[in-house]
Amino acid sequence: MGGEADRIPDTPLLDRERRLRGYRINKMAMGLGDPANRAAFQADEPAYLDRFGLSDEEKAAVLSRDWSEMVRLGGNLFFILKISAVDPVRITEIGAHQAGMDHESFLRDRLGKKV
């Protein structure tokens, strides 16, 4: 996965292989649309992740809220944003993480906000 197929530096392309690999993480994240699943996730995240058969690598990415890694592992950003709604995490914080910037710098330098 990755390598020459990723022609935009530091940007994983959502090719067939990555989409297939991301099935579990995306299915888990989509499940968070159900209030009962959100409650289960908040009560015991590792147990909730186990219900979907996530690999150790996928679990580590979710538990640490490593948004870039979740995407690299095949997570669709629109699906994994459901995780941010549980925490809640601002989408600009996720953008900053993916850009490798602190939140304040991201707001100022990428979005032109006065902070």
TrEMBL record:
| Superkingdom of source | Bacteria
Q: Which UniProt keywords apply?
A: Dioxygenase, Oxidoreductase
Question: Which residues span the membrane?
Answer: none
Q: Which GO terms describe its molecular function?
A: dioxygenase activity
| Coiled-coil ranges from the UniProt annotation | none
The segment(s) forming the Extradiol ring-cleavage dioxygenase LigAB LigA subunit domain are: 25-108
InterPro entries attached here? LigA_sf, Xdiol_dOase_LigA
Give the protein name, as stated in the record: Extradiol ring-cleavage dioxygenase
Organism per entry: Nonomuraea deserti
